[in-house]
Amino acid sequence: MTMFSRRDFPPLPSYKTTRSRWQISNHAIAHVHTPRPLGSATTINDLPDELILEILDHLPGIDIDDFQLSTLVCLSLTNHRFHRMVAERLYATYSSHFCEPYLFLRTMVAKPQLAELVRYVDVTCGDGAHHDRNRYVATAQDKKTIKEGMRLLSISNWKTWAVDCNSFDGEVEVLHSAVLMHAPNIKSLVIEDTGSHDHTGPKWIDIIRKATIGTSSGRVHRFEHLQSVRVGASRYNTSQLAPLFRLDSLRLLHLRDLVALDTGGRSTTVLQRMIPQDCNRIEKLNLEHSFLHMDTLGVLVASSRRLKIFKYDVTLECISHELNAHHELGATKLSMVLHPKRDSLESLHLSCDARAEEETRGTITLLDDLRNFVALKHLSCPLTSIIGARLDASATFIESLPRSLITYNTVIRKYTDDKNCLTALEHMAANYHTNTQKLEEVRIVVPSPAPWLMYDWEPLVRFFSRSGVNLVVEHEEDDEDDFGESWNDDSTESSQSSDEVDLYSNEG
């Protein structure tokens, strides 16, 4: 992994730049624009800014072994012209994988104009995070800089923040949170946290909580530009995550490994006070590898004024005890939870492992309730979630779908009744024009090898070829982690593509 020394990163203009050095630098910049004699050698200094920026677009992206950050650092340290050109890319992302947190914070405090360039924050913290990295030993001048920066925020506990940030034995999470406080234009936040927290949650969430309820004091920004948040939530509960649902600027929220079991009727009432109905403008809600009580899920879904994309990957892998479905999941069906969003929901992606489907006893279903989802264009779900236990209902499968549907994706899962429901797709091919005239594609993902699946695909292919609807049968290696990889795709199509933010993107 590429790392940088104290001298190299973060690159800061010297505090002791002399007049003569400024004169030399200005002379060099002026010389760049002076026409060179015909036939003389051309260097990078002779290239126009536009061409250099175009070349930078071809630098390698997020690659541990071949990362563009080192090139950007070298250019930044070359002269003031190159520093000015690459600064926006160099400081666009604060990533704990590549940036020393104390040095980056010192840079943000010392140069607020650079802090305004930070758009993306990607942090891994907690137990064992970056354990092989040596902590930076702050100098007296460093500590003075951090202390002054915290004082300028004009918050009541600025001294505590300064002491915690300057403490060599302090938690690194404090430094990450302090970076957030100094980055007013952040657009995307990714948090992978393996640490333990008390009931109030980590500091970064507390900063957002104060911003959302209007108690942020002094000069701390209120995350007005934060549009995307992704959190590994295995150590959090829904109450701790509640401030995220109050961010008015947020459009995408992706929570992974979230478990919310029923702890009594009062818990839902408390959560509703923390996350009121229609309190945010979230358009995409992704719950990956999670298991939530239906009442809790209902609160999260209802919080959005206009939810357009909903993804729910239901799994019981994170629950070791015997499940009492009625008590810990509730009696409300998933279709009823989503029903209030029937006028806005455009894409619905439901995945449910075999154990979850069996033990939840039909609660994770969309039975007989999709016809009223008038905006639904893209649907991905198991066949059994619509047909249910009555396999004779395959003939009415098409009648359960909305007229607005354009694509339907399904996975044939092992240890389920999916394979017995394939006749529903044959009926769809023959009768799609009666209810789903806009249907363009049906995609079926089949594990490979699958000796347990004895099905002749030829008739189904023939039915769809006559209908004009594109049928794709995709054979996928039978790997339990495959869905986790495809979950990163935020598009409505089935092709896999990463949604990681370009680490030094010039967009926005």
From TrEMBL:
Give residue spans, biased composition: Acidic residues: 475-492
Show the InterPro entries listed in the entry: F-box-like_dom_sf, F-box_dom
The organism is Cucurbitaria berberidis CBS 394.84
Organism taxonomic ancestry: Eukaryota, Fungi, Dikarya, Ascomycota, Pezizomycotina
Give me the ranges of the annotated region Disordered.
475-508
In this chain the F-box domain maps to 41-97
| Protein name from the UniProt record | F-box domain-containing protein
Pfam families, alphabetically? F-box-like (PF12937)
